[in-house]
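Q: Hi! First time doing this. I have a protein sequence and I read that you can turn it into a structure. Is that right? Here it is:
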Amino acid sequence: MSESFRKGTTGSIYETLRQSIMNLELYPGSRVTETELAQHFGVSRTPVREALQRLAVEGYLTIRPKHGCYIRQLDVFELAEYYDVRVGLELEGIALMGQRIPYREVAQLAEDWDPEQARYGMSGSEEFKDAEELFHIRLAELCGNPILVQYLRDVNNHIRIVRRLGLPDQDSVMQTYREHHEICQRILANDMDGAAVMLRAHIHESQAKSREVTLAQLQMRRRERALGTDAGSDSATPGTLPAN
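A: Yes, that's right. Below is the predicted 3D structure, encoded as structure tokens:
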């Protein structure tokens, strides 16, 4: 297998599995193995292993050597604690940024999130969700503390699944544009207290929507599993693996 073909195969497997985890088709806590995935996709174990390692780094699953991989459990109480840490980190970033506001960079962020331009589309696509997460990382980077950014990235790895479920419709997408843009405008006006208040409210609103959608999705998947023939199994069977 050529290197370029293998990389392409790894990317395809990664994206298919990631979407299945995001859609809760691969149920939280369920087990998958390199062998069964390689058989399912009709490839060797190498691209499967690389895809699983990337998913593990991004917080979608846990790899247990000699036992397989387990899709990340969704503990709403633990997730709430991660959101509390996220709020603290991002607000500290705003406070540090107030000591020396990088006006040009913040103005660029404001332009990127201008609701009238809707640069990332209105469909809540993967591009939009990537950009939404990057906006908060970029704001943190502008505070000048790389350790804070490192911790924020780690928190994001733990909440990414539910965070991306919190953009279910066009209204949520447009609200995100407006709030990102307004946060930047307040920073540009040197209204750091106003920016912090809005950022806190923005994150909490996102958290509430994510929790609502997550619980609804889990309930739906539980009903589907209860109707299946192996509802008591903790493994992902061929019937629950993503379509190839």
